[in-house]
Amino acid sequence: MAVERLESLLRGAFPDAAELRVEDRTGGGDHFQVTDQHRLVNDALAEPLRDGTIHELRIKTRGTA
């Protein structure tokens, strides 16, 4: 599956994502890494991000079990 197709599906599902990146980890088209930052999280933490209280923020999303 092409990176562009996966990215398109994810953008359709998460239109509010501030950043969305799909990478083919092995070049074989079946191992991917998705980087996703939702605007809602960034908006909620806007003040500490702006004033430097939070220097770096990594957001991991998990699927349902």
H/E series: HEEHH
Largest sheet: 2 strands, antiparallel
Average of per-residue pLDDT values:
85
How many angstroms separate the termini?
Answer: 24 Å
Going across the biggest sheet, name each strand in turn: 1-2
- Assembly of the depicted chains: single chain
Poorly predicted residue ranges:
none
Strand content: 15-25%
> What is Rg?
14 Å
Q: Please count the beta strands (DSSP E, at least 2 residues each).
A: 2
Separate helix tally: 3
Q: Shape from CA axes?
A: elongated
Structural class: alpha+beta
Helix fraction by DSSP (H/I, runs of at least 4): 25-40%
Describe the structure.
The chain has 65 residues and is of the alpha+beta class. The protein has 3 helices and 2 strands; from the N terminus they run αββαα. The chain has helices spanning 3-13, 39-44, 46-50; strands at residues 17-24, 32-38. Strands 1-2 form a two-stranded antiparallel ribbon. Strand 1 (17-24) and strand 2 form a beta hairpin.
Architecture blueprint of SSEs:
Layout: H1 3-13, E1 17-24, E2 32-38, H2 39-44, H3 46-50
Antiparallel strand pairs: 1-2
List keywords for this structure.
3 helices; alpha+beta; single chain; elongated
In short:
This protein is α+β, with helices and mostly antiparallel strands and 65 residues long. The chain has helices at 3-13, 39-44, 46-50; strands at residues 17-24, 32-38.
